[in-house]
Amino acid sequence: xxxxxxxxxxxxxxxxxxxxxxxxxxxxxxxxxxxxxxxxxxxxxxxxxxxxxxxxxxxxxxxxxxxxxxxxxxxxxxxxxxxxxxxxxxxxxxxxxxxxxxxxxxxxxxxxxxxxxxxxxxxxxxxxxxxxxxxxxxxxxxxxxxxxxxxxxxxxxxxxxxxxxxxxxxxxxxxxxxxxxxxxxxxxxxxxxxxxxxxxxxxxxxxxxxxxxxxxxxxxxxxxxxxxxxxxxxxx
Length: 236
Description:
Elements: H1 3-17, H2 31-38, H3 42-61, H4 66-91, E1 96-98, E2 101-103, H5 106-116, H6 128-144, H7 149-172, H8 182-196, H9 209-214
Antiparallel strand pairs: 1-2
Helix pairs in contact: 1-5, 3-7, 4-7, 6-7
């Protein structure tokens, strides 16, 4: 077990000593406070800035057409699958031994810390290092698109907007307040099932279609508690 995993186990034990499903009183309990705290975090700020940059370049290019709409709709349709795949295969990556060495990555390490201490907002948002390599890749993709740069930028705008919405929904699942819309209440409820009932299900965060497509949103009353929601990846 690595030092990072040792820290995860310690955090998991500390979490288990208190009621893990009860959010701390220090978290916002109304809409104004929730929004004010959300916009102060670096990840929403960075994604919002990227949306504005991509949108600004797209407006400068001009010549909007059906390809823009088709690309944006395709990205919107794919996003729940993208979200599901990232959660399953990247965030819940388990450390592996190869030639006597442990192969692990910082992103799943931070996600294990998130499971160990789910009400700590430090681990709720996308880490900075992810933005540091994703944003240059997005810019490179737009540059390589050539004559299709306009529609590609439209698709990237949609992807970034959905990413910002992902951050908002994930944040809502980890604070006491939630908007009174049934959609958000369901997303929050299912994500808390993932954290406090069984981490092997309910992988969708901002969208639930991925879980419906891949059969990972069972009836909660028929799904047993895993007992390992706070210590994912800490033991093989």
